[in-house]
## 1
Amino acid sequence: MSPSTRTLTRELRLLAAADPAEARNRRTRLLAEWRGASAGLLAQVLSAAIELGTAEGRLAALGRESGELRARLRDAGLSLSEAAGAVDGDAPVSAVAEARARIVGVSAEVGRLPVAPPRQEFV
């Protein structure tokens, strides 16, 4: 797998955890500049990276300590890394669909977590 594809995916995932809108803008720019034949696969992998990063950022913002969800997010991240290899032909194309399914599942779980009400301080 090309380190550059893996690096792009990891960087976009980290950016999405902090600023999903900026991550989507960066994905758009990356795809416009991409010269490889596998632009469709790259688009899928980068979209999955944004979805995973957004879920990681949401879980962190909620301040939840869920070992099970963190483990599932970590596994989804490993699947994403393998899927990035499909862009370079180093992994089967099916790895993208498998990673996407895993990411969608854990992201939906994080999305269903209740948001804690804002703290009200009385003076």
## 2
Amino acid sequence: MDLPAFMAQSVRSDPQADWRTWPFGYGWSDSWLFVGAKLLFILLLFALLAYAIRRLFGPGGPLREKWMDEDWEHQRQERLRELDERLANGELDRATYERKRRKAERR
């Protein structure tokens, strides 16, 4: 028996197995307050999942490969070195240098 036929048979064998038993129900037959609360709950779940993935696999995350951050760190050091050289050559004033350095360190 293939999988789609098995699934169809299992749904037919259970008289309560329809969308009314799904935890969110039909959704649109409820009042607008319940519909909004359900949609908000689902959006909250997706946001939580996205945040967890970002924290785990994002820059500096514990499950991120270390080699992925090496290139970024090298580029940041190059930008800071270039700013230091431009300040030493007199191409930048101190205020512009500080502003650009803060911006380069945030990236």
## 3
Amino acid sequence: MSDFKKVCIVDDDAIVVFGLKRAMQTMDFTPELLVYENGLDAIESFQEMISENAALPSLILIDINMPVMGGWDLISELREIWPKEKEEPTIYMMTSSISPQDTEIAKSFNLENNYLTKPIYSEKLKSILL
């Protein structure tokens, strides 16, 4: 079993969120789970956790294309606010896009190996979580 005790999903697609949650349950992977529909909601929640010195997520699954604040902006903000004394979370980007530009951006964030194309099948999710 993994060390991911607090997991965060940031995705505006309710069907994707439902599928990820269902797959986690099927694997008996039951961490504390946070879900946000956009990057801004996630950042505001993380800032609150930081100010309260609460546990932060150790794994964050982020959709690239969302309203209000997309995935790339979320990662930039996250890296700005994340406490230096805390280990950065494992981040996976999720997208239904096959744009080469997104792949290049993932490289600029050192996330080219953590880039998932939707739909995310249970075998791939299992390799990340377990």
